[in-house]
Amino acid sequence: MLASSRLSRRRFLAASSAATLGLAFDQPANAKEFKTKLYRAKIVQKADEETLRPLKEAGFDGVEVSGIIPEDEAKKAREVVEKLGMRVHSVLRGWAEFNSDDPAKVAASFEHTEAALRTAHGFGADTILLVPCRVTLVKMPDPWDFDVEFDEKTNHLTRVVKGDNTPFQAYINAHNKAIDGSREQVKKLIPLAEKLGVVIGLENVWNNLWVRPDHYQNFVASFNNPWVKSYLDVGNHVKYLIPMEDWIRKLGPLVAKIHIKDYALAPDKHSGKFVHLRDGAMNWPAVRQALEDIGYNNGWLTIEDGGLPLPEFRQRLDTIIAGA
Fold first, then answer.
1. CA 20 to 30 Å from 289, out of 36, 68, 172, 199?
2. pTM for this prediction
3. Is residue 275 in a domain?
4. pLDDT per residue over 161-175, tens digit each?
5. CATH number reported for the structural domain that contains residue 251 in this entry
């Protein structure tokens, strides 16, 4: 058989298999050419064959594991993952309490984060997602009213709205305390992160911190260390009414990983709700172009969403990756 015939037959068989699974995705007519390659992932609780095989069959490249297990267990699970031709690219460590007034809670958060780094190392993941703390129970501006100024050396807020900031002084104080506590604990984690080869990805998730891209970028950059970067969730920032592509370009090479979800704004843009990918306010072609512009190559897009069939999620994600 001629080489060209063998190649055509392989393509035919691959297309037939994909069609049987409902996975024969056509490139959108308005797809663009990009130099950067992006990988598809979803968040899972366990990295076992029962969980991963449907994702593999739907065309996902890997997963982010939400949960911390002993490193030896993660190493065993890694074998299952890799036999399926997939990868655990990150571990979702989640919320910490690095700004707590209780030293025991700070210490527990630190130890839990160390364990997450070791879990990631066992899986062969190169990143953990860490939310260092949150600020609650104080009066703060509405998302659309923020007008932030800060000290670039300390990252401390000096104002959060135009005019009188007295109503928000408790928030400013709590925010600055959170900055100091987060920086202290994350710095202490860097030696282990470097030893294990796992990046600490700091996520700015609805924790009322770093609500503007320049402030967030300044905080992450203040570590001046390749083992501390941004884990950027594009859906979490829509409510602040700054285009997501601006966040991406401001962070630039500090972006380690991307969480993907969508958010629909109300007509007055003063409220909204999370929705499925491509059903919200996100300008996805602009987001894709921004990822290209910052050189986010061989980067992961991890869907943080549920409620749709996996092939549908895959197709929506492929459309985003195609820039359409």
1. 199
2. 0.90
3. yes
4. 999 999 999 999 999
5. 3.20.20.150
